[in-house]
Amino acid sequence: MMSTEYAHGSVPVLHYVASEGLLDVLKCMVMNINGHIMDKQYRDTDGQTVLHCAVKHIDVVKYLINECNCDIMVTDKDGVPVLHYVASEGLLDVLKCMVVNINGHIMDKQYHDTNGRTVLHCAVKHIDVVKYLINECNCDIMVTDKDGVPFVHYVASEGLLDVLKCMVMNINGHIMDKQYRDTDGQTVLHCAVKHIDVVKYLINECNCDIMVTDKDGVPFLHYVASEGLLDVLKCMVMNINGHIMDKQYHDTNGRTVLHCAVKHIDVVKYLINECNCDIMVTDKDGVPFVHYVASEGLLDVLKCMVVNINGHIMDEQYCDTKGQTVLHLAVKHIDVVQYLINECNCDIMTPDNYGNTILHDAASEGLFDV
């Protein structure tokens, strides 16, 4: 039996030979141990085999696979198979060698890792490898990991535009078809939301609909607004020539992007100041946006709107159908009430259509601080 000798500190000589691609020397060693090159005793402290170490030398890899019957799914101590390591390193020639050896069955379950990932997932940052796997190995871009995330969605969420373009081309641009949605009904557009270059590509070149919804009926446009993604929103507003408040861009509850963006003051300012969004726009229940802001106690957003209308917040045009003012709606938020009374000179005796003032509302709600 070969003794365990070390080169360069803790690196076994055997592994050093493999990593240097010294095929003749390796053959000599393999012969000396009767071909048992993959036995546990010949692994290093990271659980790596000579196959892991030889991965950048295709002649050595071919020898180990074809003549020593080395298993391409052998893992290191972290559970990473050699096959997946090869894909993640973008070693196309070595990968091709392995694919040939298993007759092209690279996507079979036996070649998934413990997280359910395929070589396609691992190769995601290497476009030449991805192209090979899709075009020559017929890998399915909707293959999922154990969490059910399709590969194409993973690509979009990582913002890998060149890889995404490769896949869109491969399916003739049908990227928004139902078959390319995940189990939550999300499209690649939803997944790419934080990558403006990918979003622009999908909207401008793939004609993706910004009102496409997930299974909960949330349009992409509204999701962008609710996440406060101002740059992405600007891209979409430009794409529809500023018609962001048209009814076709309302959701099933009659809400606009203004309603969805309510907790993001930079987005609200943009929509009001640059898109001329009406602060009295209502949802399907007839609640004006400015009243929703007051009822939620969003003081900074309210201040933004008051400035925009030169302080005329108590004018009749800013009352709802019940004659209520923002003061009525803000009754549970003392900081908002103080602002409206002290800085906007709102009259606490202003009644609604039923004759109720904020004093009545505060008393009936037991809001003694107010």
TrEMBL record:
Keywords, comma-separated and alphabetical: ANK repeat, Repeat
SMART domains (alphabetical): ANK
A Pfam family the protein falls into: Ank_2
UniProt cross-references to SUPFAM superfamilies, sorted A to Z: Ankyrin repeat (SSF48403)
Protein name per its UniProtKB record: Uncharacterized protein
Naturally occurring in which organism (per UniProt): Amphimedon queenslandica (Sponge)
Organism placement in taxonomy: Eukaryota, Metazoa, Porifera, Demospongiae, Heteroscleromorpha
